[in-house]
Amino acid sequence: MLNTEVRTETGCLRSWAGAAVVWTLAASLWGCGDVQIGWAVDKPQVMFSGVGALAGDTASEALAVSGDGRVVVGASGGADTSRQAFLWTQAEGLRALGVLAGGATSSARAASYDGSVIVGQAGAPWSSAVAFQWTPAAGMQQLPALNGASLCVASGVSGDGLVIVGTCLLAGNAGFRWTQASGITSLGQFGGGTSRSSNAMAVSADGSTIVGSGHPVLTGAVAWTAAGQVSVLGHLPQDVAAVATAVSRDGTAIAGYSTDGLGRSRVFRWTPATGMAPLGVGQEGLSDVVAGGMSGDGGVVVGWAASSAGETAMIWTPATGWSRLEDILQTRYRIELNGWTLQRATGISHNGLTLVGQGRNPQGRQEGWVLTLPGEGL
């Protein structure tokens, strides 16, 4: 059965097989940037949609997705510099998470497995910025800062929402781990003199492993256990700096990027068996690849690369290596994105089937997007 294409009143192209609409965009979203793809019942389904922007805003970015793939989080903004954290679901569309009392900005950076705990950074009148956690019951709440810190961001949360990690600005950055029981704990700093630093970028779903960097140059990528034990992963040979940005659900696989003396980056993947191994840059003409997220089993990595046309969203598997996400959609699934440009892939669900990121919609505006691949994956 062939797909039937129709034009909506706004002129957006939407497709379905027979009468079964695969994806619908919530009424609260604006524009016609969504691409809705459907197949016959015996064919795999691919679903893609822009997340839109909050009322009055003109742009958005999707920064992470819950482990179950149902909740997308990020930030929406307008012509000024203000931004507001949001969550997006297929059923309800876009929902503003608000700001802290007296503050004007917020940005959601990570979500627990079911999306019931969301963390990020918010502006506050008494400080330049603070880390926050958000729950449906309590709303947005400020997390404590490390002593002497003037700025903090929460960048990762465990699957059960009980462990939150991030970074505070002290005399150099310092990564932190927070739980309700233990409060905020510094992960220490690495390097020497005034160059001591650390950054916590993500935490495994089981809460056992935190990843980030010590001093990016003097130490490179680092992993911490829940008990605070440190493993210095370093950087790839001939490179001078590295940071780990993503981790599998049990902490046995880690991804990040390593940078050479000219500032060119390439992605690495670390496991206890292989150590730190480069994943390359993919096809000719791409450079400066960055890892944005990793599936629960560590088998799929997403991110972005630089090209002559600008940033482009990327995906890696052991079987295929790096591929431009747009190329995968067009060649494997025969999907045209109808004016969309996928610039960054910033997050991926545990099963590796739901991806989120940001790009340019058909109207030329920056907009977050969500993509769900068929059950067999790539």
Report on the architecture of this protein.
The protein is mostly beta strands and 378 residues long. Helices cover 2% and strands 48% of the residues. The N terminus is likely disordered. The longest helix has 7 residues. The protein has a domain of 45 residues. A hairpin with a 6-residue loop joins strand 20 and strand 21.
Helix-strand layout with pairing:
Blueprint: E1 4-7, E2 13-16, E3 47-50, E4 59-65, E5 72-77, E6 83-89, E7 93-98, E8 106-111, E9 118-124, E10 127-135, E11 139-142, E12 151-157, E13 164-170, E14 172-179, E15 183-186, E16 199-203, E17 209-213, E18 221-225, E19 230-234, E20 241-247, E21 254-259, E22 265-271, E23 275-278, E24 287-294, E25 301-307, E26 310-317, E27 321-324, H1 325-331, E28 341-348, E29 354-360, E30 366-372
Antiparallel strand pairs: 1-2, 3-30, 4-5, 5-6, 6-7, 8-9, 9-10, 10-11, 12-13, 13-14, 14-15, 16-17, 17-18, 18-19, 20-21, 21-22, 22-23, 24-25, 25-26, 26-27, 28-29, 29-30
Feature tags:
mainly beta, 30 strands, 2% helix, 4-stranded antiparallel beta sheet, disordered N terminus, 1 helix, 378 residues
How do you describe this structure in short?
The protein has 378 residues and is mainly β.
